[in-house]
Structures are given as structure tokens and as C-alpha cells.
């Protein structure tokens, strides 16, 4: 434990609020009640997660891990059964069957040993055990169906309303934006559907708060995806992702109200609107809800796969262009050249984003060691273009190799828990514009402000994790 880092995380909360205030549309208006209660609610959740209720978080993680394991049953059946190399059964120690071995030789390196070969286990390819398309994306489909079923059974709605009441009563924000923010703990842009009748007459500040909460939190359908990437090195990650998603919503309101202060009179101020779609007679039966949700999950999984293919391809293309420019300007670098220019142009886009996010990463109090701080800044920065998935994968690899400390793993995993990347911009702005086409231009103008606000909110959540971290590895579930 380093008290200086905890103090830095505390000061980082103030610093992030100050940065948001500098970009305010009206710096004369400071929403002190929202700031006080928003940060206070975050601290209450932090105390529960890292102090009083650590056993509760561990129990939640254990429960969610059971659900995560269950979510792989369908994928195991489709892609080779318990002996599949593509979707490995954690309780099955044998190597892959003939089909899995053939696929490994076809799409992988034919000269790298596959589990089951008559070779030493030291020669096995460690990276082929986890194939994103066959492991993570089926979990998105399962969780989407599960959440749809829980909504049909009216299990999630009371929880959403409970959070909404807390947000509305404490921060004194409108009931509609409180409801949308609370629903974002479980779903994405779908949260705006519950308050669709009020969207057209909402103030500019309310619309920004709703968009910010979409960017700042994660939908439960992708919780399994992120948890699966870190679970080997962070066994209790599922519970912490839930706490991060809850903790970020008050931060979203704090930052969005600093950026665009409330100057109007919200129509739902002082009360929580009723969800007109909650009548079970208007919805399909439970099985239809499960299948319908799974089909929506298929669309989401395909969208995620398409975005990753397109975005990572563009990143590689941009890096190739910069590399070509580097060779023309600097000249071909000799073997072993480790100059800063050469290192920068080796991965220019990620390095540029790492430089831009370095001051913000420092404010989280993640580390005082330069190399670790730089690595964390690279991970947080690359999310803007590459989505959360590659950074979470890299974070797990760094943690497994021992390159990142327990504190860094904890703080960065909290910061990355959000949809603050360009791939989500079109989804959230387009989705909200589709609900209120009359205000399409205004929603589009708010999009990048909300993306910036969501980024600051996730960084504030990282500060909270850093504030309450006392260097206890048990918080990771190890």
C-alpha cells in the first residue's frame, strides 16, 4: 500500500471535475448538489466493494462465474463438445479431438504443437486456447437472452427503479434521466426506450446526461465478454465490473452536469416516470423473450465482430502508413535501433493516444513508476479507437506476465469498463436520434461532448478504485 497513490487518486477526482468544468457551456453554473451526492454515492459503493461488503462482492463474482460457465455450454456443443479446443471445458483436462486439432493446424501455425501431441507441455501453443469468436461472442448471445428473460419476468425493473429513486432523491436530477441512468446498468441504448414519451421535451442537459450514461457504463450482455478476458488473472472480475458499472452512473451525472449545466425546467423533475412497457400482456411469453433476446444478441455479436475486424484493420493500415513515412523521413533504422522516433513509429497510433491520455491516467493514481504508468496509459488510450476488447485482452496478458501490479490491474479494469469509444458513437447517437428524429441535429451535436464526459466518468471510477485500494491481492479473488 502506498498512501501517496491513494491521495493522488483522491486529488484525481477533483482534477477530473475541474477539467469537466473548464469545458462547461456555462462556467457560472456549478451543480454543487449533483457533485456532492454523485461523488458521495460513488464512495458508498467503494466502501461496500473494498471494505464492508468485500465478501458480498466475492459472492456475487462466484455467482456470476457460474453463469459465465453456463453460458459456454451452447458454444461447447456447437464447436466440438467437451474436448473442443475452441471452447475448452475448464473441468476437462484432455486435449482437443481430431476436428479441433485439424482446425488448429489449418488456421494456426502447423509447426506449433497442439495439446495432445506426444511432446512436452512446454511446447504447446498457449495463445490458441482462447479464440474470441468462439468463446466470448457466444456469451454475448446468451447474456442478451438472459437479460431479456429477466425483464419479461419483471425481475430487473424493480432494481432499476430502486436505483433511479436513489439517483433522483439525492442528486435532485429529473426522474427520466435517473431512470435512463439506472437502466444503463443492465442495458445500453435500450434504456432510452423506457422514457421515450419524455425525450422530445427534454432539456439539452438531460439529453447529454442520458448519452453520457450510455457511454460510461456497460450493458450486462457484454459483461461476460469482458469478464472472460480477465478471469484467469482476476477471478473476481465479474463482481467488480458490476460495481464499476454502478459506480460510473453517478460519475456520469456529475461530469455531464458540469459540461452542460441544467438551465431549464425538466418535466419529470421530482418524480420517477412509469414504464409504460412494463405491462406483461404487451410482451411475449418467457420463451419468446429468451429467444428474441438471443437473436438480438446475435446482431450484437456480429456487430462486435464486424467492428473489431474493421477498426483493427484500419489501425493496422494507419500504422503502416506512418511506418512508411518514418522510413522516408528518418531512413531505414539499423537493427537494434531503440531511438524514441523508431519506437514511436513502431506503433504510432497507440503511442499518440498513450501520450494524450498520460496526464489523465496519472490522475487515477494507478502508479508512480514510469513504465507501468505508460503501459496503463497505452491501454486506456487505445480503447478510443479499438473498443474495449483488445485493451482488456492486453491487460490480462500483462497481468499474467507480471508486468503490471495488482493496483494497476484493478484501476485499469475499472477505467476500461465503459463504451467510451468511437464504435459506440454511431450506436448511441443514432439510436437516440431514431427515437426523436425532430432533434437529430441537437443529439448529434451532443454526441462528442457525451463521449468526452463518459471518458472522464470512467476515469473517475478508476480514481475511486485507486482511492480504496490498500494493496490487498485478495480483492482480485486470488
From TrEMBL:
Coiled coil: none annotated. Residues 266-286 are annotated as: Disordered. Keywords: Cell membrane, Membrane, Transmembrane, Transmembrane helix. It comes from the Bacteria. GO terms for molecular function: nucleoside transmembrane transporter activity; symporter activity. Its main location: membrane. It is found in: Cell membrane. InterPro entries: C_nuclsd_transpt (IPR008276), CNT_C_dom (IPR011657), CNT_N_dom (IPR002668), Gate_dom (IPR011642). It is a multi-pass membrane protein. Residues 11-81 form the Concentrative nucleoside transporter N-terminal domain. The chain crosses the membrane at residues 6-22, 34-53, 128-151, 207-229, 241-260, 300-325, 345-368, 408-430, 450-476. GO terms for cellular component: plasma membrane. Residues 133-230 form the Nucleoside transporter/FeoB GTPase Gate domain. Belongs to the concentrative nucleoside transporter (CNT) (TC 2.A.41) family. This is Nucleoside permease. It comes from Oscillatoria acuminata PCC 6304.
